[in-house]
Amino acid sequence: MTDFLAQLPTDSNPVTYNEQKILENIFRENPSVLKYDMKEYILAGSLFAVFSLPQTDSLIKNFIKAANNIYILIAIKSVAFVVLYFFLKNINLIKSS
């Protein structure tokens, strides 16, 4: 059973500021926002792929001897991922200052 949109109850209260902002965020009219969001996913996926390579493991192990322990290696890769993601995502802010 479905309700037709025209048959749903409505009220005459004006839309509040918070409701307006929520609607603007949900129904964005700027198509470049989608491209920006996709760039973030591509960046995160690319960094994940690079840090998943066995060559990355051996490179880290060559520079940091304690990284022979798998848990330390994962911690180092996690921190490096977060730092690189932050800097690459905010590179425009870094260039403008």
Key features of this structure:
0% strand; 97 residues; mainly alpha
What does this entry look like structurally?
It is built from 5 helices and no strands. The chain is an all-alpha fold and 97 residues long. Helix 2 runs antiparallel to helix 4. The model has no long low-confidence stretch (mean pLDDT 85).
In short:
With 97 residues, the chain is mainly α. Helix 2 runs antiparallel to helix 4.
Outline the low-pLDDT stretches: none
Structural class, by secondary structure, is: mainly alpha
Spatial extent as radius of gyration: 23 Å
Shape: elongated
**For the terminal residues, how far apart are their CA atoms?**
58 Å
Q: Please give the oligomerization state of what you see.
A: single chain
Main β-sheet description: none
Q: Please indicate the percent range of residues in DSSP E strands (runs of 2 or more).
A: under 5%
Helix content: 55-70%
